[in-house]
Amino acid sequence: MKLIDWYIIKRYLGTFFVMVLLFIPIGIMVDIAEKIDKFKENEVPTSALLGYYIDFTWYFSNLLFPIFLFLSVIWFTSKLANNTEIIAILSSGISFTRFMRPFMISASIIALITFGMGMFIVPNSNKGYNEFVFKYIKKKNERNTSRLFKQINPKEFIYVSSYNPLRQRANNFTLEKFKKQKLELKITAESIRWVEKDSFFRLLNYTKRIVNGDNEFFEKVQVKDTIFDFKIDSFSDVPNEKVSLKYIEAVLIFKILSVSRIVKLFLAHEVGKKIKPLAQFLFLCKKFKA
Fold it and tell me: What are 201-221's pLDDT values in tens digits?
């Protein structure tokens, strides 16, 4: 690696980390200004506040890393161009592809740091961050009403795309039951509604699939009135904790429940947020090499 490579890498990484150190305190100050009334109202302990802002630092930096990276590259490259350093480098006979090598090395270092944070540090910080928000900031009776996943017993999982507590109705309902890690029963419906008068669930476009070894039983009806081992309010319990999964934990669950569409949807949503940046970077490296 030549002197010019070390020069660009140091300027690149230095500008990036300066951007991070500049914007994180600004984010903390904005968050304090926004939530100061909640802190006073709930008499939040100092130790809890310190732990919250440690978790917030990791959460905020991981969330805005792409913006920090974009700003640092623009700032650093514009300084090089303003000092005519880029013209001097290219005029010396160095090709543009060779000139981009230290940029790609720097980007690789930042990608590895971001990947490590997203897999092993940020999930724990997100857990602490969300626990604090649900305990001290959010209203106690606030409910989640979209993309709801729930395990109602050791063998059964339910999912709905949306839930209306006032009408006691949910859309795109799915129930999956497992026996020894194999799918035993699957029920889907376009909508599910609790009929208070008769105390049963009414499902529209109901389908039921029962798997028994090599044999399968399939039932499909337009309207189905039935009962389940859960209440309609189970779709949207008041949240007290929101857990972020580490990548390794998610992969193990994928293997255990590999046939579950519900679990796949949930894990894909959680893990995909962390895997997508790395995939985009690897795709960029492949295209650059080509």
Answer: 999 999 999 988 778 889 999
Location of structure tokens 């905020």: 60
User: Is there a contact between 73 and 11 (Cβ–Cβ < 8 Å)?
Assistant: no
Residue with tokens 């109202």: 41
Which residues partner with 158 through β-bridges? 150, 175
Q: Which two tokens stand for residue 259?
A: 């046939």
Nearest to 211 by CA among 188, 230, 231, 185: 185
**3-class secondary structure for 102-125?**
HHHHHHHHHHHHHHHHHHHHHHHH
Q: Span 231-251, mean pLDDT?
A: 56
Residue pLDDT, tens place only, 116-137? 888 888 888 888 888 888 888 8
Query: How many Å separate Cα 256 from the centre of its chain?
Result: 21
64 confidence band (pLDDT: 50, 70, 90) = confident
Q: What residues have CB less than 8 Å from 203, skipping those under 6 apart?
A: 173, 187, 189, 190, 191, 192, 193, 223, 224, 225, 226
CB 250 within 8 A of CB 118: no
Report the alpha-carbon distance of residue 274 to residue 185 in Å, rounded. 32
226: nearest Cα among 206, 253, 241, 243? 206
